């Protein structure tokens, strides 16, 4: 079980791009200490790191660790963290191994209920983060589309053949002059010229 706690410690203190993911707005501060040996100390911020996309759209990107890993224990009705519950499971299993089966069994029943609540809490956090990830993916796709469109327009502007454009302009100007000349000839003829 200590190996599991060490894995959880790695997850709880995970970094992305040099910033701690579960440290709230204190992204340079390691969020947790004492996960394996106890007691667990949270040193991060209680505020989530928000990225504003546009107008009313904002995403909680850097979660506060206390929000992600703490929950209300159904037994004590107090705020506790998943690390304490797992350490309690380790202690209860060790107690059972030492021969205190009845006491360990009773405590394990209570601890398992707390683990189920912790599991539900973590699943809800994962669900919220999955939604944020989908939104970020959509923003990335939209950004790539806009970048492609801008590059296409820029390419069209750069690839314009100046000589061809001048010839086309001259053709259009000649056609316009011919149209004006024809219109002038038609309008010169009056009713008297027609009768005479």
From TrEMBL:
Gene3D superfamilies, A to Z: f41 fragment of flagellin, N-terminal domain
Domain of life: Bacteria
Keywords: Cell projection, Cilium, Flagellum
Name this protein carries in UniProt: Flagellar hook-associated protein FlgL
Source organism of the structure: Thalassoglobus neptunius
């Amino acid at each position: 079980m200590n190996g599991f706690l060490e894995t959880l410690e790695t997850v709880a203190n995970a970094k992305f791009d040099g910033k701690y993911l579960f440290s709230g707005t204190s992204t340079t501060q390691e969020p947790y200490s004492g996960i394996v040996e106890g007691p667990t100390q949270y040193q991060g911020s209680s505020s989530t790191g928000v990225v504003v996309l546009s107008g009313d759209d904002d995403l909680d990107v850097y979660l506060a660790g206390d929000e992600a890993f703490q929950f209300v224990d159904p037994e004590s009705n107090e705020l506790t963290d998943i690390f304490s519950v797992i350490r309690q499971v380790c202690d209860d299993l060790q107690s059972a191994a030492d021969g205190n089966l009845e006491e360990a069994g009773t405590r394990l029943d209570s601890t398992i209920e707390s683990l189920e609540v912790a599991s539900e809490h973590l699943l809800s956090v994962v669900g919220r983060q999955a939604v944020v990830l989908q939104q970020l993916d959509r923003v990335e796709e939209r950004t790539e589309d806009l970048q492609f469109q801008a590059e296409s327009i820029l390419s069209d502007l750069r690839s314009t053949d100046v000589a061809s454009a001048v010839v086309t302009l001259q053709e259009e100007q000649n056609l316009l002059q011919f149209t004006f000349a024809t219109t002038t000839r038609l309008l010169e003829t009056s009713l008297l010229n027609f009768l005479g």
